[in-house]
Write a structure and sequence with these properties.
Layout (H helix, E strand, L loop, with lengths): L1 E6 L6 H14 L3 E4 L16 E6 L1 H14 L3 E5 L9 E2 L3 H9 L5 E4 L2 E7 L3 E7 L2 E6 L6 E7 L2 E8 L1 E5 L7 H4 L12 E6 L9 E3 L5 E5 L6 E5 L3 E5 L4 E6 L4 E4 L6 H9 L8 H5 L3
Parallel strand pairs: 1-2, 1-3, 3-4, 4-5
Antiparallel strand pairs: 6-19, 7-8, 7-18, 9-12, 9-16, 10-11, 10-15, 12-13, 13-14, 15-18, 16-17
Helix pairs in contact: 1-3
């Protein structure tokens, strides 16, 4: 077997690698190599790479996942960050988890991700992948901008505010959550459209089918705008430009080392329903 390693630029120390990571890989005869610490998801993997190990936090996971999905290989997230929603393996668990992978006993799950394409008359089409979200937002002055959203060329709404978030189900627990969007189960295929600080009493997020194409453009006088992909790659929108977002054709494969369910993770990481969770909820199931 062969593994590619994606490390956080600063949080992964030599001690982690020498005490936990390298000995486990060598013990199970897993060849390995390091990817560049900073990239936009466009790095090339060596021939015969079987899986990707991300060591860091969820931000590092997002960068590595875009590489893994292009090569159709699973990714393992090892946590050294603070939240660890996507990186759900503690560094101390690494030897045991690697033993299960080497024996072929590690289950996987798949998740849908997004592909966003900026259409520009001046610079042509520019496409990037996003595991969590594509965000269109104002830049420059604090003046409210107007965003026109369409679904397969049908008008959804004209939003006045700071921007619009288009997220995957996985991304519903990220920026979309902070913007008041719904929580979606990660196995649900959907696209979530959430306005940012909409200047309206009645504007709500929308959940759309995965095969739809969501397009955002600025109304007259609302440019320039900015588009970000998972908070990383950024592209400026000039007058006449637009961004279209669809579900990507391939699904992201993720190793699932633990038996916890989505609701357990929500309670642990976000205190979701904490007044009625844990032991009290389990007792009421009987």
């Amino acid at each position: 077997m062969k593994a590619a390693l994606q490390l956080h630029p600063s949080k992964v120390t030599r001690r982690y690698l020498e005490e936990k990571v390298y000995p486990s890989l060598i013990e199970h005869d897993i060849a390995h190599y390091l990817l560049p610490k900073r990239h936009d998801g466009d790095v090339e993997l060596e021939d015969g790479t079987d899986f990707l190990v991300v060591i860091g936090g969820d931000g590092t996971f997002l960068a590595g996942a875009k590489v893994a999905v292009r090569y159709d290989i699973p990714v393992l997230g090892v946590m050294t960050g603070r939240l660890g929603f996507l990186c759900n393996v503690a560094i101390d668990e690494f030897p045991q988890v690697m033993a299960r992978i080497a024996r072929g006993q590690m289950p996987q799950e798949t998740r849908s991700i997004l592909k966003g394409t900026v259409r520009s008359e001046s610079s042509g089409d520019i496409s990037h992948l996003a595991v969590n979200d594509v965000v269109v937002y104002r830049t420059g002055s604090h003046r409210i901008r107007e965003f026109v959203a369409t679904d397969n060329n049908k008008l959804i709404a004209r939003y006045r505010g700071d921007g619009v978030i288009i997220s995957s189900s996985t991304g519903s627990t990220a920026y979309t959550l902070a913007a008041g969007g719904p929580l979606l189960h990660p196995q649900l295929d959907a696209i979530v459209l959430s306005p940012i600080c909409a200047h309206s009493l009645f504007t709500k997020p929308l959940v759309l089918p995965p095969d739809n194409r969501v397009t955002i453009r600025g109304a007259r006088g609302s440019y320039p705008l900015m588009v970000s992909f998972d908070g990383g790659q950024r592209v400026k929108l000039l007058s006449g430009d637009s961004i279209s977002v669809v579900s990507y054709g391939s699904r992201l494969k993720v190793f699932k080392p633990h038996d916890e369910d989505f609701y357990e993770v929500l309670r642990e990481k976000f205190q979701h329903g904490y007044l009625y969770g844990g032991e009290d909820a389990e007792q009421d199931q009987h």
